[in-house]
Amino acid sequence: WERPDGRPVRQRLLVVANRLPVSAVRRGEDSWSLEISGGGLVTALLGVKEFEARWIGWAGVNVPDEVGQRALTRALAEKRCIPVFLDEEIVHQYYNGYCNNILWPLFHYLGLPQEDRLATTRSFQSQFTAYKKANQMFADVVNKYYEEGDVVWCHDYHLMFLPKCLKEYNSKMKVGWFLHTPFPSSEIHRTLPSRSELLRAVLAADLVGFHTYDYARHFVSACTRILGLEGTPEGVEDQGRLTRVAAFPIGIDSERFIRALELPQVQEHIKELKERFAGRKVMLGVDRLDMIKGIPQKILAFEKFLEENSYWRDKVVLLQIAVPTRTDVPEYQKLTSQVHEIVGRINGRFGSLTAVPIHHLDRSLDFHALCALYAVTDIALVTSLRDGMNLVSYEFVACQDSKKGVLILSEFAGAAQSLGAGAILVNPWNITEVAAAIDQALNMPAEEREKRHWHNFEHVTTHTAQQWAEFFVSELNDTVIEAQQRIRK
Ligand code: ADQ
């Protein structure tokens, strides 16, 4: 990890997340092909110049044999990635089970799984045991690569136990933990059978970060109410040891989007889309197909709008792009068919032989196509029922330099706290309110649109992903130094 030219090595940052930012495909017994998958976190950390970042995480594939594991480890090393190997049973219990079936819905206020309560209660313990075991496996790998002075940054609800495991290895390790989802009200967290153990495990970190001040406050309340600890303006105190808790709102690499709009292929795409939808206002939804994104609610609100505003029926189109996720889970399959059914019904009701009001795509779009779509959109509809932040709203704003379109944004997305002044905020559960917001957006005077847009554009271009990452890591360094000074005193 030393520099070949002998220059001093920058501080190393070990970024630990459930998934590595690569997709790995096995080509032979000892050969792998790897493709870097982008994503906010990757771009955020690419921009952090002061640190030498390494990724530690699961490659998303089961590799039962040693030959395969060694070959994958070698291939990943070239991409600055270090794998954690999880077997199928652990993935099933830890990732599909505890992370995605229990923590994800709970943290988004959807409650603990309701169906077959007794079976859930029985499997709960084994899933939690697998969760702890998986976190320990991540810790083993981090510990193996750790060198004194490194900063370890743990990410998300998959790794709430990791800070504790790491500090048990080495109490001097600098450990930060950041949650990308909301942290729910302490009343919700209280329902979790392993509520106390999880909180204590997170508190082992030196710095705990959330997207918004509200999530940080919920976390501190959970620690005071459930664990009986003391909450201070700085964080949570336990027998003289302070865990600093703060808000670090994420951003995007806005320049990347702005630059992309100048590319000939994106311009070509924009031209095609403009021709395709000439004479109609374009409304856009871009989401992972997940319950938290409120896609059925959004489409029902659009139906309500069409119902009440016959004038607009052939003058507006909703493009809903939804990337399927967790397609093997019955609840997600149900969501997909529910969305298809509603879209079919509305298109049957309001469509004509030549045009339909909703274009729904169940797939991911490449970066350039996505930028073009953002650029031609008049109204973006982000109606998450809960969302840690929501980067789609940021990406839309970054691409709206010429249109200055309107953002309709759920008040339950973290982004409502940063883009709230420029957006029209809505309660996504209230389809009458969302329908009225669509009407307001379509009839908004240009001057007001411009004002609102600049407000948000200013925010998106000055609160970038790189700054977010730099801010978190420098806070972590400072927190550890301050703690050491306190101990010396
Ligand atoms: P996500 O739930 O994945 O992230 P979001 O923040 O909106 O939600 O990010 C989604 C990303 O995927 C965006 O960069 C978007 O462009 C891309 N994407 C979505 N649909 C796509 C499509 N059809 N085609 C191509 N790309 C698509 C979690 C939390 C969020 C939090 C982020 C970052 O749930 O609340 O903002 O992490 O912390």
Mean pLDDT: 93
Shape: globular
- Total helices: the number is 18
Distance linking N and C termini = 36 Å
Main β-sheet: number of strands, strand sense, barrel status?
Answer: 9 strands, mixed
> What ligands can be seen in this structure?
adenosine-5'-diphosphate-glucose
Q: How many extended strands?
A: 17
Q: What does this protein structure show overall?
A:
The chain is about 50% helix and about 20% strand. The chain has about 500 residues and is α/β, with parallel strands linked by helices. The strands form three sheets. It has a nine-stranded mixed β-sheet with strand order 5-4-1-6-7-8-11-10-9, with helices on both faces. Helix 1 crosses helix 18 and helix 11 (about 295-310) crosses helix 16. The radius of gyration is 23 Å and the shape is globular. The two termini are about 35 Å apart.
